[in-house]
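Service request form, structural biology core

Requester: graduate student, group of Dr. S.
Request type: structure prediction, single chain
Budget code: on file
Notes: please return the result as structure tokens.

Sequence provided:
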Amino acid sequence: MLRVDSDSLRALASGLTDRADDIADMDPTAAVRPTADAMPHSAFGGAAADSALPILAAYQAMAERVQSMADAATVSAHSYEQAEAAFRAQLAQYLTGQ
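Core staff response, request fulfilled:
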């Protein structure tokens, strides 16, 4: 028989979804703005201001990847349960000679 704890996989999926949501909620704009505003006419100020969107895009990509891991854990839990049920049914048929 398969030895998989489906509840643990679902708990992992839940935790990963929570982390994905936390990452998706991160917005670097508030942290970058004071630096950019402090040096509005400098190259550094401009670079700081321009960095917010790429950082935000990176956070969003990371959140999507973590959510994909959560989705995979959920699918795996369901797949293992289905496989175990099928194996149990086949074993029962074998043992009863049907």
